[in-house]
Amino acid sequence: MKKVAVIYWSGTGNTEEMAKAVAEGAKNDQTEVSLLSVSEATADTVKNADAIALGCPSMGAEVLEESEMEPFVASIESLVSGKSLALFGSYGWGNGEWMQDWSARMSEHGASLVAEGLIVMNNPDDSALEECKALGRKLNG
Ligand SMILES: Cc1cc2nc3c(=O)[nH]c(=O)nc-3n(C[C@H](O)[C@H](O)[C@H](O)COP(=O)(O)O)c2cc1C
To answer: Per the structure, how many domains does the chain have?
Structure first.
């Protein structure tokens, strides 16, 4: 079985809803998907996965959430080289800069981004959730 891990941080649930849809999209007969909040994930989660999706909203001033997500991302940078990776997250009012910076950062560490980072303003509507599922399917590509 192929292993996909979907790991996210979410303060008010928007990115969590996206994460659930990404996980649903990634599921198929040949793929085992785990959906974890970042506090439940470890470096081993990433090491043992064939493909991963990471989700985090834009926080601070266009940065990753700083107490849990940022340290986690820093801790796995050395593990993502050659790995299929999808990034996603919700935002409120900005221009998506946090996602551009995050994408560039993961690419610099050798991750193979399966798509452009998926950003959704505030709460994902049905069409946004479909995009999340499509992103999940790409992890099986
Ligand atoms: C402390 C804080 C900082 C934020 N900073 C930004 C920001 O810089 N740019 C932006 O577009 N949205 C910003 N937002 C809005 C969140 O990204 C937005 O509310 C998002 O939907 C939250 O996702 P969540 O429900 O997964 O926590 C911020 C929200 C909070 C609470």
So the answer is: 1
95 lines ligand 1 (CB under 6 A): no
Name the residue range of residue 87's domain. Answer: 2-138
pLDDT digits (tens, 9 = 90+) for 7-60: 999 999 999 999 999 999 999 999 999 999 999 999 999 999 999 999 999 999
Q: How confident is the model at residue 132 (pLDDT cuts 50, 70, 90)?
A: very high
Atom 27 in ligand 1: residue holding the nearest Cα:
11
Q: 4: exposed, middle or buried (C-beta count within 10 Å: 0-12, 13-18, 19+)?
A: buried
Q: What is the CATH number of the domain that holds 21?
A: 3.40.50.360
Provide the 3-class DSSP secondary structure of residue 69: helix
